[in-house]
Amino acid sequence: MTSPGLFSGFRAILQRDLLLAWRRRGDAAMPVLYAMIVAILFPFALGPNHQLLARVSGGIVLVTVLLAMLLALDNLFRSDLEDGVLAQMVLAPQSLSALMAARILAYWLVTASPLLVAGPILGYMLGLPAQAQPVLFLSLVLSSALLALLGSMLAALTAGTRRSGMLLSLMLLPLIVPVVIFAAGAISAVEQGLPWIAPLAWLSAALALTLVLAPVACATALRITLDA
Amino acid sequence: MNAFKTWFHKLGSPPFFYEFAGYLRPWLWVGTVVFAIAGLIGGLIIAPPDYQQGDAYRIIFIHVPSAWMSLFIYGVMAISGLIAVVWRMKLAEIIAMESAPIGAAFTFITLITGSLWGKPMWGTYWTWDARLTSELVLLFIYLGIIGLYHAFENERQGARAASFLIIVGVVNLPIVHYSVVWWNTLHQGTTVRIFAPSSISLSMLWPILAMMIATKLYYGVSLLGRARIAVLERERGKDWVRQIVMEGTKDA
């Protein structure tokens, strides 16, 4: 019997996760609703001052989208751990890192893509300058991917614990601070008419690095969580 | 060399560690008190007031040693955390986990004394300066580690997971530090710098060094005390623990 290849395992996990997400479409809509609620509350809290809102809109959308992605993070491994699927993934002939990469990709596609559509709309509603829109979109893509990679590693660490929602945010804060700094730096640079490519290049470099390291770290964390 | 090696290996065994730490602690206490008294007298009484900051600068004798300790303890945790993840040594897990609350306390003291110092000097308790912000993030890293450790029902599993988080933090800390420095200089040019060690007068330097030694020794005292209790808790099923507990109740 020939053992199935690396890519087939990757594809199987990706297909399964996307199918499961499609069967529960309502769950996938939750983060978008949450992001919209939070972003809509800001004009009420700050007052409908156009200049003020335009200046803070980029940061608000960025933070709101990242927080909304956290909602789905807690359940990334929960149900699979409970019904034993995760143990089978560890035992599978393919490397666990590759399977984790598929899981992270599925999580990013399901959670981030609706938010990437909603983000620019929210930005427009808050009065984000038009020339900043493409940069906002780019920094949302990069920072949401980074959050998915870093967050899934932490979700794997907390998978075996009972209440992990708050803990996950606490652990994620130090990891996400540099991401927010660079993403918001690009947005504020373009608003001031400054060159904005450098912070995004830094984010892309960080993404390239975490793309390689995070699945491996995720697999290691999962092994720690699973063996008692 | 060989004798040292055997001794070092023996230190890994919980009963031997328990006994050894018990012998070491009183001596560390003595050292802590001696150096702390010397440092505080030197810093609060002997050292002259600063020509610019007056007497307010004296908080430096608490602030700077605590700030050094907040990073030093993280270094200790990183090394023992790595040992815990790779070789699964029980004692390394205990050292890493029992260091975390002490490190968090020193970080907290650094932040509090820094903000008290900031009010007369900068006119505000808190500013989003690069150093302040990265110290705050360090506090959150400590809290995350402590939280993760206690979230697990199985102590050893929790210790391993938290040790993994410590190692992630080692990679993250420099990134946070430099990105925060970069972020701050992007927005405002003014940076408030703590004066460089070379520019400090000797009469102010030696109390700081004395306090530095005192805080290191205090860390030793605190860590060994916590670790002894943790060793007893983890080994509660073993015979040697029962003997110690029985002796303790006989005395009481």
Entry keywords:
heterodimer, A: 228 residues, mainly alpha, 9 helices, 0% strand, elongated, B: 252 residues, 81% helix
What's the gist of this structure?
The complex is a heterodimer of chains A (228) and B (252). Chain A is an all-alpha fold and 228 residues long. Chain A contains nine helices and no strands.
Walkthrough of the structure:
The complex is a heterodimer of chains A (228) and B (252). Chain A is an all-alpha fold. Chain A has one domain. Chain A is built from 9 helices and no strands. In chain A, helix 1 crosses helix 6 (96-125), helix 3 runs antiparallel to helix 8 and helix 8 runs antiparallel to helix 9 (197-226). Chain B has helices spanning 2-11, 14-46, 60-87, 90-122, 130-151, 155-187, 202-234, 239-251. Chain B starts with a helix and ends with a helix. The chains are: A mainly alpha (228), B mainly alpha (252). Chains A and B meet through helix 7, helix 8 and helix 9 of A and helix 5 and helix 6 of B.
| Number of domain modules of chain B | 1
Instruction: Tell me the overall shape of chain A.
Output: elongated
- Report low-confidence residues of chain A grouped into runs of 5 or more: none
Give the CA-based shape of chain B: globular
- End-to-end Cα distance of chain A, whole Å, is 32 Å
The pLDDT mean of chain A sits at: 88
Portion of residues within helices of chain A: over 70%
Q: Please, how many helices of chain B?
A: 8
For the largest beta-sheet of chain A, the strand count, sense and barrel status come to: none
- One letter per element, helices H and strands E, the order of chain B comes to HHHHHHHH
Largest interface, Cβ cutoff 8 Å: A-B, 28 and 27 residues
Oligomeric grouping of the chains: heterodimer
Q: The biggest beta sheet of chain B, please?
A: none
* Overall mean pLDDT of chain B: 84
Helix/strand class of chain B: mainly alpha
How is the topology of this model organized?
The complex is a heterodimer of chains A (228) and B (252).
Chain A lengths: L5 H18 L1 H22 L3 H24 L4 H5 L2 H7 L4 H30 L7 H26 L6 H27 L5 H30 L2
Chain B lengths: L1 H10 L2 H33 L13 H28 L2 H33 L7 H22 L3 H33 L14 H33 L4 H13 L1
Helix pairs in contact in B: 2-7, 3-4, 3-6, 3-7, 4-5, 4-6, 4-7, 5-6
